[in-house]
Amino acid sequence: GASVLLLRACLVLLASPIYLLSFLGIWEPFCRKVFFPFILDKIGVTHEKKSKKHKQELFRNLPDFRGPSGALRILEIGTGSGSNFQFYPAGCKVTCSDINPNFQEGLKKNMKKNQHVQYEEFLVAAGEDLGQVPSGSVDVVVCTLVLCSVSSVSGTLREALRVLRPGGAFYFLEHVAAEHSSWRYFWQQVYYPTWKLVFAGCCLTRELWKNLEEAKFSELKIQHISIAMPWMPIEPHIVGYGVK
């Protein structure tokens, strides 16, 4: 514990300009509008290369969840720049949502590259508050690298279940806490406060599989995987889907 606190203090000193900007109320709006979309775009390129095979396997059975009409209606929570569009089946109807509306440039680029998808609308909304989406109105909810930063994981999962039709599915791929006895977990604890500040609320030590297990899915498939990112404490991931 003492080692963690000491190393955390060292990181605070190194990141003291950011902490000062945060104290003055300048960092958060700058982070959400400029820094976070920029850095996520750069990190996202590497993460997409590392996670591509996992996403291909994850989304392979999306067509199985088409509704009675034959259409596949997808709601993506935390769409960001739209890196998942390439994995969606042709003709599916996608509603995009994100609490941060500042990903528009990357989002438009990915929409243009993936014209096999029908884009319905973009909602500025938090995962915990999807009131603009009617209950039981979508076949699939997709959430990748989002549950780490929502204000309430359980609230987001409740909303996902609400908007899904019976028999619909919630798809996820998220980074999670490492084994408590590992060095990875030690460094996750060290980085935690500064990482959360710098990366717009991203939490390194959430055990998200527990939240998913506690949610009221009739069927849940979870796989623990590793996606190595150079010099970043987010290697442990979970991937899978739950059925309403």
UniProtKB/TrEMBL annotation:
Pfam families: Methyltransf_11. It comes from the Eukaryota. One of its GO terms (molecular function) is S-adenosylmethionine-dependent methyltransferase activity. InterPro entries: Methyltransf_11, SAM-dependent_MTases_sf, Thiol_S-MT. Gene3D superfamilies: Vaccinia Virus protein VP39. Residues 75-172 form the Methyltransferase type domain. This is MET7A protein. It comes from Sylvia borin (Garden warbler).
